[in-house]
């Protein structure tokens, strides 16, 4: 499978004025694009493309009840959508009709991931993801699903994130019906064969071994590991032979318990993309997926709430302002912030700074990470990037935001020059960063936040209206399934594409104040 447990993909951050940001250098935006943003923002709302994403469910007597919610979609999106919840089991389903789809695709996102691992079995969620492919009661041969997909010009994969596990597939149109049947059995009656445990355990362990030389992965793991011991943020996610008890009977029992506790229909999200009509897709989905057990799962866990309960009795770092200290959460308590860690490397010297922030995931409509990305990755005169480059200290600056319900972790990632990797250079990089954040906090006390925010909101509208669907059906269904597990139905597209719908200057100012807390509010890792 793809590398489950790897560094989670960054949140959809907006680069300076709309350029495509993936970390590292980001160019300044063309003035023409800014002019287009302003022009489009002046259009009446009725002139903007919108989509009625239909919600349907059956009433208590079986009669069909139709509801609708207006959801904005990209003006270049020719697809049709229909969202339903199956009354039999509570499964949430999205059907997407794409007349141009070369293949059909389907995916399921389960609202459980590595945060849900039992403490005694780190990596169990990832291990469960692997084993689901290896035979079901209806199709017991462990190779039958892969063979069927290959026979119908298809492929499949999966990945485990911190709060989600996503299984995704594409197949030739003729294989859609039976492919859905076979796929549904993963969630109806998986076998978890004891004889297959050893083989998949080796596959999981191999992924961990492959990750170890990756410098970025190591820095990310080290900085996450500075969280409190009772926080899910600091746990080991991938799994190894040792962490999974060598696949013994106790590991298999824990696996079944984990599956029963988290793989229930109300915590699953099914998406399909096909050239078939949405009604036909839903017919096929209901034929096979209505048998997924409702189970007895509770709602997905809000780890911020758990964090607050576990952190309330602990003291906070005395060097932080009270407001910032109260929001440390997983990094609260003596000794969890203000750390400096050094490791050896054969790669380019790098310095990572990790700033723990209050959870921002539920504030996606305000796009606070888009704002912070703009403020920190801006490359013009006086910017952090230009200051450090001009002094010959860094070759690039990247930004990554990991947003979960437990916390948001913002990473500044510097690739260092030989001068920057020297002791004096490192001090200059650190001092220059803290000084820039202090100046940023001073600026944001005035009108800077609303002014910049307004521009970013207009640019996000342009980016949203002109974004295109992925070329790959596999990418489309995996992205949509993951979005279904994160956002309400009306924001499946807008949330994942980073549309700023409701600016919140007070939230952004508060986050900037947290960033400007100084050396006592950050952990630093150096690879040299």
Structural write-up:
- By secondary structure, the protein is an alpha+beta fold.
- 37% of the residues lie in helices and 18% in strands.
- The chain contains 18 helices and 13 strands.
- The protein has helices at residues 31-41, 124-131, 144-151, 176-188, 194-211, 215-224, 249-262, 278-289, 303-311, 322-326, 368-377, 384-390, 418-421, 423-443, 448-465, 473-484, 492-496, 505-515; strands at 50-58, 64-72, 80-85, 92-97, 104-110, 155-160, 165-171, 268-274, 340-343, 350-357, 394-403, 408-416, 523-527.
- The strands form two sheets. The protein has an eight-stranded mixed sheet with strand order 2-1-3-4-8-5-7-6, sandwiched between helices.
- β3 (80-85) and β4 (92-97) form a beta hairpin.
- The protein starts with 30 loop residues before the first helix and ends with a strand.
- 48% of the residues are buried.
């Amino acid at each position: 499978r793809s590398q489950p447990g790897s560094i989670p993909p960054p949140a959809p951050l907006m680069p300076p004025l709309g350029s495509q940001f993936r970390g590292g250098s980001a160019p300044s935006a063309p003035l023409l694009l800014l002019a287009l943003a302003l022009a489009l923002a002046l259009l009446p709302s009725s002139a903007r493309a919108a989509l009625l994403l239909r919600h349907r469910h059956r009433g208590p007597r079986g009669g069909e009840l139709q509801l609708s919610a207006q959801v904005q979609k990209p003006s270049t999106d020719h697809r049709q959508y229909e969202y339903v919840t199956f009354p039999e089991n509570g499964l949430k389903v999205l059907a997407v009709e794409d007349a141009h789809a070369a293949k059909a695709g389907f995916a399921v996102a389960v609202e459980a991931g590595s945060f849900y691992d039992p403490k005694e079995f780190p990596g169990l969620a990832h291990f469960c993801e692997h084993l689901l492919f290896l035979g079901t009661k209806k199709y017991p041969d462990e190779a039958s699903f892969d063979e069927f997909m290959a026979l119908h010009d298809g492929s499949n994969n999966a990945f485990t994130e911190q709060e989600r596990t996503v299984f995704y597939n594409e197949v030739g149109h003729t294989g859609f019906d039976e492919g859905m049947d076979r796929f549904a059995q993963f969630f109806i009656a998986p076998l978890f064969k004891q004889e297959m445990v050893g083989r998949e355990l080796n596959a999981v362990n191999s992924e961990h071994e492959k990750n170890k030389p990756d410098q970025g992965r190591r820095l990310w793991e080290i900085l996450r590991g500075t969280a409190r011991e009772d926080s899910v943020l600091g746990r080991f996610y991938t799994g190894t032979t040792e962490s999974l008890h060598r696949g013994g009977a106790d590991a298999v029992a824990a696996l079944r318990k984990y599956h029963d506790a988290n793989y229930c229909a109300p915590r699953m999200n099914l998406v399909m993309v096909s050239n078939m009509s949405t009604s036909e897709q839903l017919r096929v989905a209901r034929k096979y997926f209505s048998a997924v057990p409702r189970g007895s799962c509770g709602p997905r866990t809000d780890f911020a709430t758990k964090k607050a309960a576990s952190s309330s009795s602990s003291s906070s770092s005395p060097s932080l302002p009270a407001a910032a200290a109260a929001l440390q959460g997983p990094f609260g308590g003596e000794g969890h912030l203000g750390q400096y860690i050094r490791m050896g490397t054969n790669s380019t010297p790098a310095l990572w700074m990790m700033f723990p922030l209050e959870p921002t995931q539920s504030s996606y409509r305000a796009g606070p990470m888009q704002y912070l990305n703009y403020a920190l990755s801006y490359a013009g005169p006086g910017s952090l990037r230009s200051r450090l480059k001009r002094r010959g200290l860094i070759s690039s600056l990247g930004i990554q935001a990991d947003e979960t319900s437990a916390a948001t972790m913002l990473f500044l990632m510097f690739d260092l020059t030989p001068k920057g990797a020297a002791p004096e250079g490192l001090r200059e990089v650190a001092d220059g960063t803290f000084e820039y954040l202090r100046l940023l906090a001073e600026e944001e006390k005035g009108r800077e936040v609303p002014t910049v925010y307004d521009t970013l909101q207009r640019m996000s509208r342009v980016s949203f209206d002109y974004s295109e669907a992925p070329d790959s059906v596999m990418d489309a269904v995996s992205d949509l399934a993951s979005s279904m597990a994160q956002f309400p139905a009306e924001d499946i597209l807008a949330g994942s594409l980073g549309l700023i719908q409701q600016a919140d200057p007070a939230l952004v100012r508060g986050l900037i104040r947290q960033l400007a807390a100084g050396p006592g509010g950050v952990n630093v890792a150096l690879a040299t």
